[in-house]
Design goal:
This is Sulfurtransferase. InterPro entries: GlpE_sulfurtransferase (IPR050229), Rhodanese-like_dom (IPR001763), Rhodanese-like_dom_sf (IPR036873). Keywords: Transferase. The chain has four helices and seven strands. The protein has 114 residues and is of the alpha/beta class. The chain starts with 8 loop residues before the first strand and ends with a strand. Helix 4 links the parallel strand 5 and strand 6. It has one domain: 3-Layer(aba) Sandwich (Oxidized Rhodanese, domain 1).
């Protein structure tokens, strides 16, 4: 299970597995949705820990970077474009435990909350 968190990306199927494992206390990570409020309110992955829209990236990035420097963070969005950009910025600035959810919510087949 831990090996899934040691890459720089995670598929939707892997994210489902990781969320179940986190519920069971087997792994620990933070799942951050970087879509906008309206998109998030239309439906989001069950298990998202926080919404941090990319439109306000400059306002929250440093706080998240500093507060969770030693924690694995998975970024998700609609298709993986925005989450990939956020993950890349974090990685380029030295946060070695960030992953991008490949395919985003459009490829996710797990539980969605509204």
């Amino acid at each position: 299970m831990q090996e899934l968190l040691e890459k720089n990306h995670v598929s939707s199927a892997e994210l489902e597995t990781l969320l179940k494992a986190r519920e069971e206390g087997k792994v620990d990570f933070l799942l951050i949705d970087v879509r906008e409020d309206m998109e998030y309110n239309m439906g989001h992955i069950k298990g998202v820990d926080m919404l941090r829209p990319t439109s306000t990236f400059q306002q929250w990035a440093q706080e998240i970077f500093d507060s969770y420097k030693d924690k694995t963070i998975i970024f998700t969005c609609r298709t993986d474009n925005r989450s990939g950009q956020v993950q890349q910025v974090f990685a380029q600035n030295g946060h070695s435990k960030t992953l991008n959810h490949i395919g985003g919510i459009v490829s996710y087949r797990g539980e969605i909350e509204k």
